[in-house]
C-alpha cells in the first residue's frame, strides 16, 4: 500500500491539480453533482457532499462553480442524467484496478476506459472481478513535515483510527466508513491539519511491480485518471520509490 500512498503524495507535490485544473474542475463538478443528486443539496445533512465540496475547495475551485454544480444536480434537467458506475480491470504486472466514474453516457465512458486499458497493456474486466480485493475505508492524509509523526499517530488512534501508516513526510490514517467523519473532526480539533480526506477503496493485498512494467502501469493509471468521466482510480500496486519519483 505504501507505494500507492507515495504515488498520491508525489502527484500533490508536482502540482498535478494546477497543471490539469480544467480536468480537475470537471471531475469535481461531477463528484459534487453525484453527491447532491443522491443525498440532497444541503451539505450539513449530506456528508458525502460536504467531503466533495472540501475536495473542490482544496484545488481552488470557485464557490460559484460549486454552487452551480449543486443546483444542476438538484434541479432536474441535465443533472438528472448523471450516474455513478464502477469499472474493474487488470493492469500490467497483475495489478487489479477499480475505477469510479460519473457519466451521462455509459457507451462513451466504457469505450474510453476500454481503449485506455488496451493501449496501456491492461484489460477491462467483468463486474465483480477485482472488487473483492478492496474494502471501503476512510483515508486521511497528513503532511508531517516539521511535525512529530508519533504525536499525529497517537492522536489518530485516540480518535478511533483503525490503522496509521507513517512514511517520510506523510501519515495516512485509515478508518471504517462509519467512524471517518468522527476521526476527521477529532484530528482537526486536535490541531492536526489534513492534506486530503476521502472515502476510498483500500486494497487488502498489494502486488509488487518493478522496472518497465511499473512504468507502464503508472502510465495506464495516469491515462485513466485523466479521462473526463473518471472520478477516482484505485489499484493494488506497490512500486519502487525511484520509479515513482520519475513517473
Provide a descriptive summary of the structure in words.
The chain is an alpha+beta fold. It has helices at residues 2-13, 16-19, 21-39, 47-58, 63-74, 106-119, 149-159, 180-189, 211-226, 241-245; strands at 83-91, 95-103, 123-124, 134-143, 163-167, 170-175, 196-203, 207-208, 230-235, 237-238. The two termini are 17 Å apart. A hairpin with a 2-residue loop joins strand 5 and strand 6. The chain has three domains: 2-81, Arc Repressor Mutant, subunit A (Orthogonal Bundle); 83-132 and 206-245, 2-Layer Sandwich (Alpha-Beta Plaits); 133-203, Alpha-Beta Plaits. The chain has a four-stranded antiparallel beta sheet. The chain is 47% helix and 24% strand. The longest helix has 19 residues, at 21-39.
Amino acid at each position: 500500500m505504501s507505494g500507492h500512498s507515495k504515488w498520491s503524495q508525489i502527484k500533490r507535490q508536482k502540482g498535478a491539480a494546477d497543471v490539469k485544473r480544467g480536468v480537475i474542475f470537471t471531475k469535481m463538478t461531477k463528484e459534487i453533482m453525484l453527491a447532491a443528486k443522491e443525498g440532497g443539496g444541503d451539505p450539513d445533512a449530506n456528508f458525502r457532499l460536504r467531503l466533495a465540496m472540501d475536495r473542490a475547495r482544496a484545488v481552488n475551485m470557485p464557490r460559484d462553480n460549486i454552487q452551480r454544480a449543486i443546483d444542476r444536480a438538484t434541479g432536474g434537467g441535465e443533472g438528472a442524467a448523471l450516474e455513478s458506475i464502477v469499472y474493474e480491470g487488470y493492469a500490467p504486472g497483475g495489478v487489479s484496478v477499480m475505477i469510479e466514474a460519473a457519466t451521462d453516457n455509459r457507451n462513451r465512458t466504457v469505450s474510453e476506459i476500454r481503449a485506455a486499458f488496451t493501449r496501456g497493456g491492461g484489460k477491462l474486466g467483468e463486474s465483480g472481478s477485482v472488487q473483492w480485493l478492496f474494502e471501503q475505508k476512510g483515508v486521511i492524509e497528513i503532511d508531517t513535515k516539521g511535525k512529530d509523526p508519533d504525536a499525529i499517530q497517537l492522536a489518530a488512534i485516540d480518535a478511533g483510527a483503525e490503522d496509521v501508516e507513517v512514511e517520510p513526510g506523510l501519515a495516512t490514517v485509515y478508518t471504517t466508513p462509519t467512524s471517518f467523519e468522527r476521526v476527521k473532526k477529532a484530528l482537526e480539533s486536535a490541531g492536526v491539519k489534513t492534506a486530503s480526506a476521502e472515502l476510498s477503496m483500500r486494497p487488502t493485498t498489494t502486488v509488487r511491480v518493478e522496472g518497465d512494467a511499473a512504468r507502464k502501469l503508472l502510465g495506464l493509471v495516469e491515462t485513466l485518471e485523466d479521462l473526463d468521466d473518471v472520478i477516482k482510480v484505485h489499484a493494488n500496486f506497490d512500486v519502487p520509490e525511484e520509479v515513482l519519483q520519475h513517473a
